[in-house]
Amino acid sequence: MTDTLTLSSVSKSFGGFRALDTVDFVARAGEVHALLGENGAGKSTLMNIACGLYAPDEGHVAIDGKTVRISGARDAAARGIGMVHQHFKLVPAFSVLENIMLFNPGRSPAEVAGKAQDLARQMGFEISLSDKAGTLGVAEQQRIEILKVLVAGARIIILDEPTAVLSPEEGRMLMGLVRKLAEAGSAVILVTHKLHEALHHSDRITVMRGGRKISETTPEGMDPASLTTLIVGEQIIEKPQLSKAVGPIEVELENVTLGGEAGRKGLVDVSFRVRRGEIYGVAGVSGNGQNELSAAIMGLSFPSSGRIGMNGLGDVSKRGPGYRRRHGLGCIPVDRYSHGLAGRISVTDNYAVNGAMAGAYGGWGFFKRGLAQAAAREAVAAYDVQGVRSLGQRAGLLSGGNAQKLVIAREFEGAPRVVLAHSPSRGLDVRAGAAVHERLRAARDRGAAVILISDDLDEIMLLSDRIGVLNSGRLTREFKAPAERGDIGAAMVSHE
Amino acid sequence: MSSTELTDTNHETVAVTPPATRLRMVPLLEVRQSVSERLRIGVYVVSLLVAAALSVALLAWSGVAPSDLGREIATTAFSSPRALGSVLVRTAPLVIAGLATAIAFRANFWNIGLEGQMILGAIFASAVAIYDIGPENGRVVTMALAACLGGMLWIAGPGLLKQRLGINEVITTLLLNYVAFNLLLHMVYGPWKDPVSAFPHTEQYETFERLPMLGWLNLNWALPLAVGLALILWWIMSFSRVGYLLDLMSSNARMAGAVGVPVAGLTVAAILGSGAVGGLTGFAISAGVEFRMTQDFFSGYLFSGVLIAFLGRNHPLGVVIVAFFMAVLLLVGQSLQVFFGVPFALVQLIQAIFITCVAASEFFLTYRMHWRQAA
Which ipTM did the prediction report? Predict the structure, then answer.
């Protein structure tokens, strides 16, 4: 077996911070190589060096045993390295073919179309080259991204957290595709947080921590616990803890119906109740009404019929987010960068919004930044938000886990009576995810009613006291924890 | 895409790959992880210096030697209190125009309708003057308020269309400039035409319908009005809850909405505020410079307003500083036209050079360059 891509003793610093420290990494043709590590472990930096976005300070990169200097993404593509980014880079208004051609300039449409169809067939999926990229689902868009680099002749394919945006089924299909790519002779590098992907779908695992390579191993003889220990340097095992004291009903959804986003079913007659001191998990395959449910509870969209009762307030289904939040609703939205934080402004300004709206920093004509900063400083310490060099630092520079901690610090500030958490650990590493879960349990234990919407069944099983299953916009089943994983899974995919 | 707010953590790249030859240096661009305030100011200053150097070179090429240029600037703007006075007279409406634009830009509303709002402001103010509305000793204040109202009415349509139907405000505000211009022509050629003059303009305002003189240099109240407005807006933008929430909104409107910020209300307030100040710009010129409504008093302010707001980084105090230099440039440009025969287009070209240089300097804030040998 040949060493297709070799990174030798690679180091890289950013303004005094050593992001990579003499890291060796080898990707071989025909193999799937999983790259694991916490946020900030250096995975992305390493892969950005591999595909020419960063120049290493020390060490060198070799392809097929020959040392190369890669001078940018286009050069990397010419040398057979293709990166599929976590955030897709397709032009929505262009057709699939046009998007592929954009990445492969100087070739005729007929040639590109033929090659794309051939490759798609080899990989076992169908594509329609004339569809607009913007109309495709996430999984299809991802396939187009993969096709793009394959048509360009990539033999070394880097996938950056490819399943983070996919549903479990789509993720499984992608893993099948990854295997086919390797069988066809490519070296596939799978950057991931998900242990089971590394354990079940890779041939080799490299674990990074703090900018160093900690271990290179094969999946045989490894299990999630041992892998976690390697990743975080200590053992983190979360165990379900059921509620000790369930109180009266705090939130009540009654026959909530809501039109869906384009092509989705929305919500149909959804009813459930959540009591104080309980975590109500909403399980389901993503795209079955989770976004609509979340928007309805946050107050971002109003149901066309039905009611949402909050204790002591009556029906709030036609009230905006401001009203609900003033009366004790706290939300951890699914996409912390679109609904949770404003990336371009400071940590303080992101934290301060509740206080400002409540008048804690002066009336409409004032914003006492000193007070806001003091409050933010306290919250950052209390919620252990790491990576804050100064409170004036832009929130967009925080890693996923710390960004989420900042959201939670703000949302839990007034001890909300009702908490909505939508896929709160998505994209987070094990340690950060566990920290988020701990906060949710703490909120429950102080008496909040917690609604947890997640397409990660493990997360649901771990946290929930009761579980409802959302299927095609309807709440089809309810379970009381501890429930059988298989039963919930069956309810998620059944077509009754 | 969900990560648009966080472009600096994405690893986008721009590949700069000239044909690789041996021993040739090629740049590799890395996306910066963070930008310090010092770097930001440094890059801004350097870009201004580059623009100034290019402008001087361009003028030298057109026959204005740098020494002549220096003398011209000194005489036109700074040689006497009177010269400084004329610069300041010119500065005042430019400040107000820049503020009007900056308010809308801060709320991500691209108001390209400043000239239309100025025209409506002048029409409303002139109506108050012509129809003798309100007491004489408060007439000029009534005119100012009417001007604000006119500007607000003119921007309300585009604001409503944007908020309700998502119709692009660049198009609507821009096109309404032409509607306003034709309305203006109708007024000054038709019902409001000055009976004692052949020129298309209204009758001269009475003395009490003009902005009173300050009694210092040749200045009137337009300058204190402009500076006062800038200070008020500085407070609102930088030290009030409104300004804080506007920042939050323009950084991420979806997030602001989700945490209960009254996004629609604040946006409407900013849009109407921008229109009101736009109307006030028209008032400041007709009641402070021309003492009547002429058919082209507004001309060029749209572009100047955008330029001042942009170069001033939408900061009220930045607007004041940039407007001052813009006034110097315009006056120096006038005397260069007279004494050196350079075309006015050259002045516009210089403005464009400054904009281009500052806009292009963003590149150095986004990327870090590494020079390395091509393989």
Answer: 0.80
